[in-house]
Amino acid sequence: MSIITDMFAYDFMTNAFIAAGTAAVVSGLVGYFLVMRGQTFAGHALSHIGFAGATGAGLIGLAPLWGLLGFTLVAGIVMGALSERISNRDVAIGVVLALALGFGLLFLHYHTSFATQATALLFGNVLAVDRAMIITLVVLGAITLAALAVIMRPLIFASLQPELAEAKGVPMRLVSTAFLAIVALAVSECAQIVGVLLVFTLMVGPPAAAQRITTGLWSGLAVSAVLAVAEAWLGLTIAFYTDWPVSFCIAALSATAYFCTLPARTPTHSYAEA
């Protein structure tokens, strides 16, 4: 018990646990569908695109979060709208990703005083989260999960049976666009905890592990969210007592959890309950 009380004697640790828990729940739930749809590279690209937005916002005097959120949201909508037209999507996304990082470097060139913040943006700095940021993350998280709930049923149908869903009249492009916009919101939150370079830590690791050990939709979502929160909180605890970077601790735990599920036989998923 002393381990717990020692940590929470500091306000910055309390803030970090609240912020990390909020972002982890959102990342675990949204990431589950990201992995299920095979769009993890798109999620990775959105985080890098967000870096250009954050540095651009710093250049004009805005909070980095709003630039990150704005760029990822626009990019997510565009990627979703074009997803049915682009034949070599991975190539196109990779080119856009490289261009976005190039713009981020250009913005840093003209705003050198932002370099310290850029490092925190790349690798995360959850220990610097304040109450205002927590409120922002909670509001964004609520919006993200509410939007996910609205499109969940057509999203599942379109992900598992795309041809049949299209034949039944499901608006595939609209579903894809809405989902990637939701992913953009989740990426913006997750980046505040582990940084844009390690977004996969919470958005892919826990969902991928959950899908290897569960068969149902709701059980998979629950395991994914619980794993993400556990990794985030345990990572904070380890970092507090070792002075290691928080993002490294979370990344190491995420990778360990996934590797531990590899010997398990991949289950046959049944989403009839949805």
Please describe what this structure looks like.
Helix content is 79%, strand content 0%. With 274 residues, it is mainly alpha-helical. α7 runs antiparallel to α9. The mean pLDDT is 85.
Termini separation comes to 40 Å
Strand tally? 0
Helix content: over 70%
Shape: globular
The ordered H/E elements are HHHHHHHHHHHHH
Note the topology.
Layout: H1 2-7, H2 11-36, H3 40-59, H4 64-82, H5 89-110, H6 115-123, H7 131-160, H8 162-167, H9 172-194, H10 200-203, H11 205-213, H12 217-242, H13 246-261
Helix pairs in contact: 2-7, 2-9, 2-11, 2-12, 3-4, 3-5, 3-9, 4-9, 7-9, 11-12, 11-13, 12-13
Keywords:
274 residues; mainly alpha
At a glance:
The protein has 274 residues and is an all-alpha fold.
